[in-house]
Input
Amino acid sequence: MASIVETCDLTHRYGSNLALDHLNLTIPEGAIFGFIGPNGAGKTTTMRILTTLLLPTSGEARVAGVSVTREPRVVRRLVGFMPDFFGVYDNMKSWEYLDFFGRSYGIPAQQRRRLIGELLDLVDLGHKRDEPVMSLSRGMKQRLSLARAMMHDPRLLILDEPASGLDPRARIELRELLRELRAMGKTIMISSHILSELAEMCTHIGIIERGKLLAAGEVQEILRTMRPHRIIEIRVVSGAARAEELLRTHPDVLELRREGARASTEAEAEPLDDETGPHTLLVDFAGDEHALGDLLALLIAGGVRISHFAEQSSDLEDIFLHVTKGIV
Amino acid sequence: MLELNPILVKDLRSRMRGARAYILLTIYLLILAGVTLLLYAAISGDVGNDLNAGRRIGQTLFFTIATVALIEVCLITPVLTSGSIAGEKERQTYDLLVASLLTPWQIVWGKLVSALAFASLLIVAIVPMMSLSFLFGGVGLTEVLIAIAGLFVTAVLYATIGLFWSAMLQSSLGATGFAIGTVIVLLLGIPFVIVIASLILGSSALSNLLDSVWFIYLSRFVAALHPFIALGTTASHLSSGGNPFFEIVRTGTANVIVPSPWVLFTILALIFSAVLLAASVRLVQPAPSGADRRKRP
Ligand SMILES: Nc1ncnc2c1ncn2[C@@H]1O[C@H](COP(=O)(O)OP(=O)(O)OP(=O)(O)O)[C@@H](O)[C@H]1O
Ligand SMILES: [Mg+2]
Output
C-alpha cells in the first residue's frame, strides 16, 4: 500500500516548548488512522502542519508525496480538514455555508449545487438545508463541518477529535459515516482520546506522547506486539493439581494465578482439589504461538482435562496506559 | 464564467442581510442632516439679503456637509474593516479560510472591497445633500467632485488601516481600538506637529528657511497627510479662483509649482494604502514557527 502521509523528523517548537520531536509518521492510503495521545501530546500540532496551517520548525511532511512547506496549495487541494472547533457565521444557512467553502475551493457553480445536495444527504442533513447554521445542534454542526471538509473531494480527511462532545448515538453515526467515507476511497486521519472507539473503527493507529511517536501500525499488529506478554486463561475440569505442577515448572510461564486469588503466593498454600469444581488458572506466558501450542499439548499429555484455553483479549486502553507514561 | 471573490460575496451578503447596515446608514444621514439644518437655521438670518447671501449659504452648507461626512468616514471606515479578519479569527473560521484554496490576497482584498462598497454607499448618499448647496450657488462642480474623491480616498486609507490591525490582532475589539487609536493619533498628531514646527521656525533665526523650496515641499507633504487640512486648503484655494491641480507659491527668489494639496493627499494615501495592504497580505499566511497566532480556545 502506498503511503499518503509521510513525515520525516518533523519537529515543532512553540517558543521553547517542544511540541513535536522528530516525528516519523506514515499513513497508508485508504487507512482509517487513529492518532492517539494524552492532552498536549502534539496531535493538533501535527494535523495543523499537515493542513499547511503551521510551518514546522524543522523536518519534512509530505501528503501524497507533496511537501507541505514547498507546495502548500497542492496539499490544500488534497486535504480536507475538520478542526477541533466548529467555526460558524451568523446569518448563514447550511447550504450557504457549504456554498461559500465550495467557492473558496474554486468549485464551479453547477457542480457546487449538485455537491451541496449530495453531501447534505450523506451527512443526513438534507432536511436542514435552509436552517441557519447557528441553530444546528452540536452533532449536526459536526456533520456539517465534515460535509464542508468534503466539498473539494479531498483524498485525505484530517479530523481533529470529531467525536468529542457527541452523545453515544451520534458517535455511532459518525463511525458509520467514516466507514462510508472509507468505502468511497478516502484516507482518514482521526485524533481522539477515546481509545475503545478508535479500536473499533480504525485500521491503523499511532500513539503519540510529548511529541514522540511511541507506536504505530495496524491495530491488530499493535495489539499483538505492544503486549509485553500474554495472559492465558485455562479452565481445568480435572487434574488441576497436576496442571499447576506442570505450569509452575514451565520455563515460559512467568506467573501463575488462580482466578479469584489475590496474589500468586496465596495460591501455593494447598493443591487444588478437583472436587471443588472446575478451576480457572491465569498464566502469564512469555512464549510465542508455537510455545503456546506445546504448552497445551503438554497439559493434555499430562492427563489434564481442559474446557477452555484462550488468550485474554487485551484492548487498546491497556496498551495506551502501558505505553504512555502520563508524563504530559 | 468568472466567479466573484467568495469573501466579497459572503461579506456583502451578511452585511446587507442584518438590520445593522441600514441602522448605521440612517444614523449617519440623520447626523449629517441634523447638523446641516442647525447650521442653516443659524446662518440664514445673519447673512442678510444682499446678492452674495445665497452664495455664502451655499458655500457654508457645502463645507459643513463635507466636513461632517469626512469626520464620519474617518470614524466609520476603520471600524468596517477592523472587525473583518479578526472577526474570522474570533468565529474560528480563519483557519478554514487559510486552509482553503483562497489566496491571502483574495481574503484581504475581499474584506477591503466589501467594506469599501459600504463606505461608497455612505459617500454616495451625501451627493443629494451636496447638490442642495448647488441651488444656492457659490459652489462649483469641481469642488463637489474633489470633495467626493477626497472622501473616497480617505475611506480607502482608513479602511486599510483597520484591515491591517485586523490581520495583526486576534480580537476585533482590540483591532477596532487600535484602528480608531491610529486614526485619532494621525488626525490630532499631524496638526500638533505642524503647530510646534511653525512655532519653532517662526521664532528662530531659521526663518529664512521658510522660503526654501525644500521647506515648501516638506510642509506641503506633512499637511497632505491629513485629509482635513489637505481638503480644506484645497477648498480655500479653489474659492479664491486657483487651479484645481496645482498652485504656484511665490517666494522671495522664485515661483515654486506644487501640486494641489488634495492631489498630494490622494497620491500619498494610495501609497500608504498599498503598503498596508501588502503588510496585511503577509500577515494572512501560515504563522512562521515560534510565532503561532492561533488562539487557544
Ligand atoms: N498556540 C500555541 N502556543 C504555544 N504552545 C502551544 C500552542 N498550541 C499548542 N501548544 C503546545 O504544544 C503542545 C502540543 O499541543 P497540541 O495542541 O498539539 O496537543 P494535542 O495532542 O492536540 O492535545 P489535546 O488532546 O489537548 O488536543 C502542548 O504542550 C501545548 O501546550
Ligand atoms: Mg488537540
Q: What stands out?
A: Chain B is about 75% helix and 5% strand. Chain B touches chain A at residues 1, 3, 6, 9-10, 13-14, 17-18, 88, 91-102, 286-290, 292, 294, 297 (CB under 8 Å).
